[in-house]
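#help-structures
NK: newbie question, is this the right format to request a structure? protein is N-acetylmuramoyl-L-alanine amidase
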Amino acid sequence: MKAPVCLESRRWLFDRMPKSVAPYKACAGLGINPFGPVEGRFRESERVCKAQSVHHRFSVRHVGCIGGRGQSGKEVELRIGAGWRNMVGVICGLLVLLLCAPSAFAQANMGAQARVLEAGTVLVGGRDTLALDISLSQPVPYRVRTFSAPPRLVIDFNTLDWADVEPGAGAPRSHVRAARRGQLPDGWSRLVLDLGAPFLLTSSEQRVDPDSGQAIISLRMKRVALEEFERNAQDEQRFARLSGAAYLHPEAAPAPAPAPAPRKPIVMLDPGHGGIDPGAERDGIREADIVLSFARQLREVLLRRGRFDVAMTRDADEFVSLDGRIRAARAAQADLFLSLHADALPEGLATGTVIYLLGDEASDESAAYLAERHDRADMLAGVDLTGNTDEIARVLMSVAWQDTAPRARGLADALVEGLGDAGLRLHRRPIQSGAFTVLRAVDMPSALIELGFMSSPRDLQNLRDPDWTLRMAEALADALELWQERDTAMQQLLRR
């Protein structure tokens, strides 16, 4: 005959359990009630009278309390004789300690500072798989997400101390290019894995050792097509499920998108001549080749410094009309136009670098000669320059030019200053003007730089010297940076 459930005997056991044991209190507070029904963990299943002894059989079932998910634990059966009745409280207290302590401590410590343990923290890459195990001194709330462009795995942890553990070591660079970690507000920390390929998260779990209370977060990923990765990268609900949603705090409002990087000024480099127009020639050397080589060198210097973006009207030995050069600068939305030349004068007396600006009258005979010579190259190529002089006159009278001309003069001053500081030889009149068709774009400061004159033996030697051309390129880059600083300050002042 089955004995009735004896609530009094249960309460007698309850009263004799060591109340000071923190795990017991935690279990009781979490709903592990020794007086409940079968789901209440303690159940008097049978009472049998045998002579002078009363045997009580108790079944103790532990149900995990982490994350609200039930986990079947151990069943322990006790047979307690009448002579040992006074020890029941102690024994049941020990049972509670053994069976409830890991879960109780885990729940109680979810907000305490946990540590990453180097032993057990591994990142392993297979052919098409990636596995990450993070060993912790205790369980912590965490969340997992992936982002595209480029592919990244992002894991946030609450109250976690990384110490000196580096979780990114172990996987090949084809799988993980880099790993970085850092602190976030409100006690959270973040681990970011820059993925070498689109690896999609397939599972995520946190396992707790019932004996030590330590935990391991295990993430498993597989390589997928980029399209599938991008489709899933922003699926927050899916990753909330994989991340153990019961652990998560409410998501904070997304951080504002970072402000776009300021646009770099664009310098349009215009290597003169090219194709059917070789420019000046001396000793089998063509001006078109010299200025193209220098333009490439100057482009590399400017790009390496990172202050400017660079475009070129030509990057090969090809003919580009004067109008085509202006159109290329406007199409690139250039902020600055530099035409590069190394001409020759019949007299052979000119030497040193000269900066030419657009003007209605030539500053001297050599400026007039050079402007006419540059236009003649277009005429030889069949370009119609009828009315070109009138067009330059209209440019000089335009309202737009009144705004651009002072900026162009500031550019010329900065170029001369930069070349002088570098100890490079300048013409005795380093800034001149002329009706150069290629400079007639009114929407950007423009200048024509005669790097040197091939009619001068000294200049020709310099133009062929790689060390000299590098010095020239560095000096021009210094000058452009100086002009940019001055011009930006002036434009801000004019806007006030």
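mod (FA): yep, format's fine, and the tokens are attached above. The chain has twelve helices and 20 strands.
NK: thank you!
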